Here is the input.
Amino acid sequence: MTRLSDTELRQALTAADPASAVSLEHTEATRVIHRARPVGRRRRRRPAWLIALVAVFTIAVPATAVAGGIGARTGIFGSPVPGDDSDTTGFDYDDSEWLDLGASDLKQVVASMYPDWLPLAPGITPDAMIDRATAQMTQSGAMGQETVVKRTYEFIAYQDWVNAWITAHATGDAATLEQAAQVLLDAPTWPTIVATDDGGFILMMRACGERIAEGDAEAAQALAQISLASGWDGVDRSGLLEEIYYDAAGEEG
Here is the structure.
């Protein structure tokens, strides 16, 4: 087992380029959201969702930075370097296990963490969710924590329900519209979303969910924009997102 120095670990994590897992769509959406910020005389703290979206990509480190194992389960918890509890890298680690995201049995491990309680949008099956979560987690030569797998499941389901509401609104499907609205109101309580959020994105989930429950299609599109849901129509609603955030946060200009 090789233990890296603080300097070596910083260099390894820098070389890992966590953003490499982000697709062009994710990068473009993040750039759009980063443009939404207070203007004029308002001096407000820039909210967390303007700095970094709670997205489904993995904060990964190179597998060479840690002790290797057989299969996806590494037996490594906390810091990705065994025996290192200094947290000098700037990343926040929880106590979940690190997984080898290039291992041949990754799908089996991801499948073992499928949350049976998770509400799925119409037409979505557990097998499809497992395939999609595995595809989003797979990165050759990188590692990510179990918590990210769990968050990935929740976030994919959330995106699906945003899309379901948008589609139901467009087609006049009242039953699905009501069902989707209720799920979007409940989603800010989902365990891993709660555990991995500092409050900014959950605030937006709640605020947009309340507007959507009242039939606000613009709020649904704004939510699709920041949650990177495929139902987003491509129209930049940064101004509306800012308005929703500050209304929900109770801040005044």
In short: Strands lie at 61-62, 73-77, 97-100, 142-145. The first strand starts at residue 61 and ends at 62.
